[in-house]
Design a protein that fits this description.
By secondary structure, the protein is mainly beta. The chain contains one helix and nine strands. The N terminus is likely disordered. Keywords: Signal.
Amino acid sequence: MKSRKILFVLALSLGMFATSCSNDDNEGETIVPIQGKYNLSQTGAIIDGKEVLNDAIQNQSGCSRDYLELRLSNTAVIGDYNGSDCALVETTGTYVRSHNDLTLTIGALSTTSDIMNLTNKELKIKDKVTGIITVYTR
């Protein structure tokens, strides 16, 4: 009798665990935190139904890669290295994430992008207006 109770509790626990791990309520949204510092890696677009990406020409040759830093305080920092001395210019704004949308506001300019991929190593976004794809790596 005692072993039946143990089996029943075990089966009930496994059933509850399996249903609690369901991914249905996040509608495809990734659970990886978006906060972090991302180096600009590639840019591109979808051409004839295929994703075409190239090394980001925004990165100045011989300098560190430009970056996007998303902080816990919803502050966005864009780092741009340029000139012969690779001078760093940082521009600060804000960001908002809503499901798989990322809205960056820098000064009076606001852009909203679809989050195409977010992993521990990559953030890939696609601008909703221009369709430009930007890939950042950590």
